Amino acid sequence: MKRIRRVNRKAVLKTMMELAAGDANDAVKLAYLSQEDQTLIDKLDLVCLTEFKRSANGAVEVKLADRAAVLVKLLEQLKEEENSGPAAFLQALDQVGTQR
Q: Is 19 exposed, middle or buried (0-12, 13-18, 19+ CB in 10 A)?
């Protein structure tokens, strides 16, 4: 039986904010770490990193989250949150009252 995980909306919004305001510096540092320095990986902030490849010839490919797209989605979610409170309920009641 597959376990269904509940998504914590606040945690998702927090991660989206971190992505939107994220810093790529640690992702670049990761590209320059030597084999001996790999113990430092746990200390890096890699929340913006979506893909990392290092080839045998030393070439490095770093892909980061699309911050603009995350910011747009975050703003949409915050706008929805604004509209879902008591003010939205009163506004919906007003609309029902004017339709009669």
A: buried
Predicted confidence (pLDDT) per residue in 10-32, tens digit: 887 888 888 888 788 999 898 88
Mind giving me the DSSP string for the chain?
-PPPPPP-HHHHHHHHHHHHT---HHHHHHHH--SGGGGGGGGS--TTEEEEEE-TTS-EEEEE--HHHHHHHHHHHHHHHHHTSHHHHHHHHHHHHHH-
Q: Tell me the residue type at 59.
A: A
Better-scored residue on pLDDT, 27 or 79: 27
Residue 61 pairs with which residues in a beta bridge? Answer: 53
CA end-to-end span of the chain: 49
The type of residue at 80 is E
Q: Choose among 85, 65, 52, 62: nearest CA to 15.
A: 65
